[in-house]
Amino acid sequence: QVRLVESGGGLVQAGESLRLSCAASGSFLTIKTMGWYRQAPGEQRDLVATITDDGLTNYADSVKGRFTISRDNAKNTVYLQMNSLKPEDTSVYYCQVQVRLRSPSITYPKWGQGTQVTVSS
Description:
This protein is mainly β.
């Protein structure tokens, strides 16, 4: 069993910052790519940022220069530092990790429960 615990969401004003965290625990061999996605009401879930296990990052164009994804492999935790927040960043943010099992030898995606980020104008 693998568990993801997200934290750090909340209500902020435009221009302010938030930091999201997502920690993985349980029985697995390793965590491969980790990422953040977001979904606004009535919208599809979109990629925000990903980071591979060797530190390569990828960002949605809408957050480049404002958001930074990072990870602590010793803690199996991924972070999303969100600066200069805008009202259009308001969404439920979900972390996703690629869990690698030892036996059976498979990799599968695991989603967090989501955390609400609300940015007021």
